[in-house]
UniProtKB/TrEMBL annotation:
This is Helix-turn-helix domain-containing protein. It comes from the Bacteria. Residues 27-83 form the HTH cro/C1-type domain. SUPFAM superfamilies: lambda repressor-like DNA-binding domains, PUA domain-like. It holds the Pfam family HTH_3. The lineage of its organism: Bacteria, Pseudomonadati, Pseudomonadota, Alphaproteobacteria, Rhodospirillales.
Length: 263
């Protein structure tokens, strides 16, 4: 099996110049990386070496042929449709599929590959200080939202950005599951662990038939809160209106904060 075994090959050109490169040449480069000769790969594809050579010289290839080629390398083809977060279609698709944003500002829907939510992504939620402290104390065991993707995997880490006047990342909790539930049932079933007054609850969910319940576990405070000024300087961070996906550099920094033990 070649070096590409178990890998995901994503067909997305990086720049305008890259897009001009023939797809056949791209495949040829992947074959060389995998360590397979034309003869070896032709045998896997059950075609002649001459036919494979012609294929690697083409600039247009059927998706079915592309899929067979990639799988013969021991990899997996994935083709995604990517929509900007501000596009009208992107917003409509978010509601229709109950999908989360695959990157900081893009909705990625798989066209080939049946997984609805690909890699697990840590998220950051903006939460009022009175509620963020209750989460970290373990008394508030659910977070209530007017809208939230139900496809978030169990175990996703939710970092807590405590809003004004605190304005800092203060800790985390794990999301055990996300439930889309009638608003009245949310109050009946979760008011005892939501730490919210009835009038605030009614105002928040006003006009909605359904709401979303994020069930939380394993709350953990940061060794030290990371203030907004530091977040902006180190990570180009801006507080989310609702939630956003944590960038890799920020995730690594937050993990480091957790392993530091106070004297």
């Amino acid at each position: 099996m070649g070096q590409l075994s178990g890998k995901v090959i994503k067909a997305t050109p990086e720049t305008a110049d890259d897009a001009k490169i023939a797809i056949g040449q791209r495949l040829k480069d992947l074959r060389k990386i995998s360590g397979l000769t034309q003869k070896e790969l032709a045998k896997k594809l059950r075609i002649g070496q001459t036919a494979l050579s012609k294929l690697e010289g083409r600039d247009d290839i059927h998706v079915s042929t592309l899929k067979s080629y990639i799988e013969a390398l021991g990899a997996k083809l994935r083709i995604d449709a990517t929509f900007g977060s501000q596009s009208a279609l992107g917003l409509k698709l978010t509601g229709a599929f109950e999908e989360g944003w695959g990157q900081e500002d893009q909705l990625v829907l798989p066209l080939i590959d049946d997984a609805a939510y690909h890699p697990q992504r840590d998220i950051i939620l903006s939460i009022k200080p009175k509620y963020s402290q209750e989460i970290l104390l373990g008394t508030k065991r659910v977070e209530l939202r007017r809208r939230f993707p139900t496809s978030v995997p169990s175990g996703t880490v939710m970092y807590i950005y405590s809003t004004s006047p605190e304005r800092a990342l203060v800790g985390s909790a794990e999301i055990s599951d996300v439930l889309k539930t009638p608003v009245q049932d949310i109050w009946d079933d979760y008011s005892s662990v939501a730490c919210i007054r009835k009038d605030d609850f009614d105002n928040y969910f006003s006009g909605l038939e359904y709401g979303f319940v994020l069930r939380l576990k394993n709350p953990r405070p940061l060794h030290r809160p990371i203030g907004l000024e530091e977040l902006r300087e180190r990570f180009d961070f801006e507080p989310p209106q609702s939630f956003l996906y944590a960038r890799p550099m920020l995730r690594e920094a937050l993990k480091y904060e957790y392993v530091k033990v106070p004297n």
